[in-house]
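Review form for a predicted model. The reviewer records the input and the model, then writes brief findings.
Reviewer: anonymous (R2)
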Amino acid sequence: MTAVGARSGGSATGRRRTGRRGSGRPAGESFTREAIVESARAQFASHGYRGATIRGIAAAAGVDPALVHHYYGTKEALFAAAMRLPVVPSEVLAGALSSWRAGGGQAEPGIGALLVRTALTLWESAELKDTFLGLLRSAVTNEQASVMLREFISETILSTMARVAGPGGQASPAEAEYRAAMVAAQMLGLGMTRLVFRLPAVVGASVNELAATIGPAVERYLTGEIELPSGARGGSRLHRE
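Model under review:
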């Protein structure tokens, strides 16, 4: 069973517990939250991150969609709860980018080293390590888990990075997407080699050492001069607005 399936405890449909009473009010906050999260795990696993909707998750849980928004706010926050992530990834990333922007984009360490250090510190935290490792392993071995994780990364993490992509943060949408994807390739490769394959040289390096080594490459992909494929070339955001 995949990490997603293991977390869902099998199909939520056959043992669904609705949060409705005759009046339409939830039977209790903890009971209702559990029903929503169980429904979310099943919906994300079956339909992927993009295909799962708050309305569909609410219907499967037997609650009003407004209640899902009340408890979790956004689909990303609900996904984090369903996957037992202790943080909302884009919020952590946005915080790192904000601290970099606060220094005028010139703060030390550079944005690349900051992103590497932030990611590694989060991935290797006691609260997240086992969950993140399970997601990586599932994505490698299971197509549904791969699609779900790819869509989640694309719609939340990459879209956040794309906002600062390009020299001066003025990349076109296509260029920004390409640059963010190159950062993801670097970072996911780091996660796989350090946490899954456990290559000795990568495991033996400290977080600060890896940030110093890999950070400049990440920074170049995100904001530096790189050779762009033809499909990612075009006017800057500034020129398109």
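Findings: Residues 173-196 form the longest helix (24 residues).
Further findings: The two ends are 48 Å apart (CA to CA).
Recommendation: see findings above.
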